[in-house]
Design a protein that fits this description.
mainly alpha; 21 helices; transmembrane; transmembrane helix; two-stranded antiparallel sheet; membrane
Length: 494
């Protein structure tokens, strides 16, 4: 109880509250700028941790983490470009709502979903941190492979109108993920003797090119017109009745985000895609997904913000980063003299309690700041479309280059933009490419390590109870919906 009072006293400090507000606002703005993202926001803030007290440093990193993941949804909704990879699923329904003049409503759903996801996952973190940490520790290569295969079934849900094209797009993403050095043998693959390709293709230039630059090309080819944000820009909170009626999606998405967050290296992108696919499977409004359905935004944003607390479980309890962002945070904690690991909860209860309660404060600040910042951000889209598109191109170029200061990333950005435009013309979905690319490395490495462990026997994978359950869910997820649709069609015809 003393640790709770100590944490509350620290959070009541005006300087700490200022850090919370400033860090969250900065995170939202950085997250909303395509190509920047959470890792860059936290990395740029690392020098400040040398001069700030430990608690102020930690709360700053948490505020940047939560704010930047939420901020990615704003650009996804407004300009069909996820500011961060974690919001890739948000644009599937967010931008269609914007085009229908419901942009204010879409940003309201994203903001509320993000805050509720963060708060629910924090509660789950406090109640179940030891259990979740132990469960995450049980995942080995075989279990990770099964999880990756299950995540790929999101393609079935996202591409129901053209499943074959969705599958081909996913295969393209998996193929792109293999470019570069083989993780096990060290050999070069698909580099065509190019030194730049030996390190593989960066996620940021690929993602920004596929969605942002191809969107610019698409609008230019379609003819410039009034920007869609002239109708529906601003901010509108969802009604309490509408929110309560979706409590199942909120809870399910928070559970998915927290659970996936506890698995080291998986991250919020996979969580949001899995949550989106699951929401589409069970939602009574599933037919409206992809056309501007709030359930899709709510599922994606609740899950990816729930990962923030879930990813802290292996980071704090095991000293294993839950994702690349918490890997940076792990280094910052070490610089502050904090040693994450199994003894942290018993050796430093004041700090862990401060982190838990700090997450509550940060998510509440994110909700309030989102309500204030969304109308300001949406006004940027009211400018004439030629100026808007020019600004978008400048922002994505600066954002992409600033990640690693590699000129080759600009070439990848251009090629991805041209390729994304061609795929749009051919009516191929872009999201499955991202799914395949993000999960490709994990799936390949886990499969090969699993085969080494089982002497090349794939059937031996079923000996793992966790993997067997995930494989069963994958098969059910792929077969049950089509069978139900067929039976409903027969019932209507008969």
């Amino acid at each position: 109880m003393n640790s709770v009072f100590h944490a509350l006293g620290s959070l009541a400090d005006p300087f700490i509250l200022f850090i919370v507000v400033a860090g969250t606002a900065a995170g939202i703005i950085v997250g909303a700028l395509p190509g920047l993202g959470s890792v860059l926001a936290i990395t740029l803030a690392l020098p400040l941790t040398f001069v700030l007290p430990p608690e102020a440093s930690i709360i700053l990193l948490l505020a940047l983490y939560c704010g930047s993941i939420y901020g990615g949804s704003l650009s996804a909704i407004l300009i069909n470009t996820p500011g961060t990879p974690q919001s890739a699923a948000t644009l599937l329904d967010g931008f269609p709502m914007m085009k229908k003049g419901r942009g204010a409503e879409a940003m309201g759903w994203a903001t509320v979903g993000s805050a509720i996801g963060g708060l629910l996952s924090t509660v789950l973190l406090i109640l179940a941190a030891p259990v979740l940490a132990k469960f995450g520790l049980r995942f080995g290569p075989i279990e990770y492979f099964a999880l990756g295969v299950f995540a790929l079934t999101c393609v079935v849900a996202i591409s129901t109108e053209a499943p074959l094209k969705g599958l081909l797009a996913c295969v393209l993403g998996l193929l792109l993920a293999t470019i570069g050095q083989d993780p096990l043998t060290g050999g070069m693959r698909l580099t065509f003797s190019s030194f730049e390709l030996s390190a593989g293709i960066g996620l940021v230039p690929l993602l920004v090119g596929l969605f942002a630059l191809s969107e610019v090309f698409w609008r230019l080819s379609s003819g410039l017109g009034p920007p869609p944000a002239k109708v529906g820009a601003g901010f509108k909170l969802p009604g309490l009745r509408d929110l309560i009626s979706r409590w199942r999606i909120l809870l399910r998405s928070a559970l998915i985000g927290t659970g996936v967050g506890t698995l080291p290296g998986v991250g919020a992108t996979a969580a949001s895609l899995i949550s989106y696919a699951e929401a589409r499977r069970v939602s009574p409004n599933r037919e409206q997904f992809g056309q501007g359905e709030p359930d899709g935004i709510l599922a994606s944003e609740t899950a990816n913000n729930a990962v923030t607390s879930g990813a802290l479980v292996p980071t704090l309890a095991l000293g294993i980063p839950g994702d690349p962002i918490t890997a940076v945070m792990l280094g910052a904690l070490t610089l502050q003299g904090v040693t994450p690991g199994p003894q942290l909860f018993t050796d430093n209860p004041d700090l862990t309690t401060f982190i838990f309660l700090g997450l509550f404060v940060v998510n509440i600040a994110m909700l309030l700041l989102g309500m204030a910042i969304c109308p300001l951000v949406s006004r940027l889209i009211r400018i004439p479309e030629p100026l808007l598109l020019s600004g978008v191109v400048i922002l994505i170029a600066i954002g992409t280059y600033s990640v690693s200061y590699n000129p080759f990333d600009m070439l990848v950005l251009l090629i991805a933009g041209i390729g994304g435009y061609a795929l749009r013309v051919l009516h191929f979905p872009l999201a499955p490419i991202v799914i395949g690319f993000v999960l490709g490395g994990m799936i390949e490495q886990s499969l090969r390590q699993g085969l080494i462990l089982t002497d090349g026997s794939f059937l031996a994978f079923l000996a793992s109870p966790i993997a067997a359950v995930l494989f069963f869910l994958t098969i059910a997820f792929c077969t049950v919906p089509p069978l139900l649709a067929r039976s409903k069609a027969r019932y209507r015809d008969g």
